[in-house]
Design brief:
By secondary structure, the protein is α/β, with parallel strands linked by helices. The chain has a single domain, classed as Metal-dependent hydrolases (TIM Barrel, Alpha-Beta Barrel), CATH 3.20.20.140. 23% of the residues lie in helices and 25% in strands. This is PHP domain-containing protein.
């Protein structure tokens, strides 16, 4: 975590969302919105469904493997959480358009730091057809990938509840920058999370 904190600061990020695959052990409240060296850390999980990968944020992220997206999304909504449809146009892990058409996800990942430019650009068709909130994410599997894409929030986000509220209100915008740092996007009352 110390390395993530150091790299995030160098990248100009105010916070990071850690969403490991199938991993959100321990109660969320014990680690939600904690700060390391001034960096906000929000913990979620990435859950794979047949309808696409979902980034989940809420009070309880412990779900059995193999549930369909619809069931996960209903459960997340009931507990006051939210889900982001991750990398919906990635060739090997596409997202189901129906989840967006039916308004079941709080946001869709428009920019993903590990996607190709073509994969990220394919969301334009969905944006023309459906109202949606969009975000960006690094999808970092190494420190060097951290901050390649991020989400800009116009207000401070300090924990999963703030994050869920901002996502549902459409108070998020994807940003991408392959030249670091991202300091051009920062001000004292704004938060950029990867």
């Amino acid at each position: 975590m110390d390395q993530i904190t150091a790299f995030a600061g160098l990248r100009g990020l105010d916070g990071v969302c850690i969403t490991d695959h199938y991993e959100a052990s321990g109660p969320v409240s014990s680690r939600d919105g904690y700060m390391l060296d001034g960096l906000v850390v929000i913990v979620g999980t990435e859950y794979a469904t047949p309808q696409g990968d979902l980034l989940l944020f809420g009070p309880d992220l412990d779900f059995p493997d193999g549930l369909p997206a619809e069931e996960i999304l209903v459960r997340m909504d009931a507990m006051g959480g939210a889900a982001i449809l991750a990398h919906p146009f990635r060739k090997n892990r596409p997202g189901d358009e129906r989840l967006v058409a039916d308004g079941m996800v709080a946001a869709v990942e428009e920019m993903n730091g590990r996607n190709t430019h073509e994969e990220n650009g394919m969301i334009a068709e969905w944006k023309a057809k459906y109202p949606m909130n969009t975000v960006g994410g690094s999808d970092a599997h190494s420190l060097e990938e951290l901050g390649r894409s991020a989400t800009h929030f116009p207000r401070f986000v300090n924990g999963w509840q703030d994050l869920v509220a901002a996502l549902k209100a459409g108070e998020a915008a994807p940003i991408i920058n392959q030249i670091f740092p991202l300091t051009d996007f920062l001000s004292n009352n704004q938060l950029n999370c990867a």
